[in-house]
Amino acid sequence: MSLPSINPTNTESWKLLLNHYKEIKNLAVQDVFTKESNRALNFTVEWQDFYLDYSKNRLTGETRKLLLDLAEEVKLKEAIEQQFEGKKINETEGRAVLHTALRDFDTMKPEVKSTLHKMKLFSEEVIDGTHKGFTGKPITDIVNIGIGGSHLGPDMVVDALKFYGNHLKIHFIANVDGDHVSETLKSLNPETTLFIVVSKSFTTQETLVNAKVLKDWFLTKAEPQDVQKHFVAVSVNIAAAEAFGISEKNIFPMQDWVGGRFSLWSSVGLSICCAVGYQNFEELLQGAFEMDKHFKSAEFDQNLPVILALISVWYNNFFEAETEAIVAYSQYLNKLVPYLQQAIMESNGKSTDRNGNKINYQTGTIVWGNVGTNSQHAYFQLLHQGTKLIPTDFIGFSESLNGNIGNHNILMANFFAQTEALWAGTYNQDVQNSFKTFDGCKPTNTLLIKKLTPKNLGSLIALYEHKLFAQGIIWNIFSYDQWGVELGKTVAKDTLSAIENKDSGLMENESTQNLIKKFLE
Ligand SMILES: O=P(O)(O)OC[C@H]1O[C@H](O)[C@H](O)[C@@H](O)[C@@H]1O
């Protein structure tokens, strides 16, 4: 059974939404809070430690109803079921999409269970010092070598859960930039460093090149037989990892039904496990599992990922907003946006529909942002008074982790103040100075979460995973392939031969030829 393929613009609800949009697009809706009783509570969803207030949006009860109808008409419910049932919904690659199976503690697949067990035993030995380096010293540093999904997820989570961390220092090498590799090596001692080579395919150029550079560096101080104590791999491609010189017992398997950008829950999360301990890693998974159950079973009008997806479609396809910002008021979530950029933009950056036809409406949004309050002093001017509409998600936590209540109160005062200022602007105020006039009506979703725990982080990540999937279904695209990335990789092989052979003529394009010539000078 394949995913339903329905052009959203042909649905009845889309047509009604178009008319409805015309009616409300120019309304200054700031005063909905005085006009509608219980506006805030009517547009709020409370679930476990999460409180989503989406009342500061340019939508009414009618908008919500029509958007919910749209979700029904494109058969979102059926699509969700197909994903969780393991149907091959990644049709262009003929694969199921089951990152949710990695955290399904009710019916865990045996291969998932055994990999988790292997991760637990290994990480415990590294943390407690039982696992020794080639000179008998315990491990102090871990280097995760991987790129894209084999880097962004672990890097983000290790940083986000720093509070729960132990003595191990985790480093990440993704870029093939040799300067970065050299800078990282400066602080490392081969006797006490563990390298985790993470590549689902074990064919990614950057990762294989970096892994070889690091192995060569290691072998300047150690003997070939010492490699097994210092190099482990995470991959679907066991044979390629073995060919690199890592023995099977040191390879942590993963499955092809786990997409790279959704793989932090798999053995790709080994560096997370080592950084915060297996128990915290399992809680991260538990949090995601809770969100999975919510996504699967909650009515759409109470369903966090579905609500966020529909609001985003409303701005993207009707208001023609091209981008959306995500601003987390927690320094621990410094790397959330780069992580979400891959998850969201690699998934929904598509212009062919599920029937293989060119699409004539907008799909994937451009996602950007940073942490608050830093963002306020950088680009918030554009949110407040620029000409573009930029719907923004605000993510904040009621409790801080280290105390320091004074700072936390100020942080959160800014968090609340911004959504209010963006919404209200100077509406209804007698401002004589046009430069100091703020239109307001700038939409925001506020996600207030009790505390940054591993479990809540797991739920938060899964929330965005499901949001992007729901959007992909509405847009009638395949969210789980990434053919666009492949072309660049192929061309890079040609440019590398042009560079290595010192022959810019190997390239067809005149501009590229000239640039390579200049580079070779
Ligand atoms: O894990 P690997 O096979 O090395 O792949 C790493 C990355 O490669 C490409 O960039 C893909 O587009 C990503 O989705 C993937 O995460």
From TrEMBL:
Pathway: Carbohydrate degradation; glycolysis; D-glyceraldehyde 3-phosphate and glycerone phosphate from D-glucose: step 2/4; Carbohydrate biosynthesis; gluconeogenesis. Keywords: Cytoplasm, Gluconeogenesis, Glycolysis, Isomerase. Its EC number is 5.3.1.9. SUPFAM superfamilies: SIS domain. The keyword Isomerase applies. It comes from the Bacteria. GO terms for cellular component: cytosol. One of its GO terms (molecular function) is carbohydrate derivative binding. It is an enzyme of class 5 (isomerase). It is found in: Cytoplasm. One of its GO terms (biological process) is gluconeogenesis. Its main location: cytoplasm. The active site is at 346 (proton donor), 377, 489. It catalyses: alpha-D-glucose 6-phosphate = beta-D-fructose 6-phosphate. Catalyzes the reversible isomerization of glucose-6-phosphate to fructose-6-phosphate. Belongs to the GPI family. This is Glucose-6-phosphate isomerase. It comes from Aequorivita viscosa.
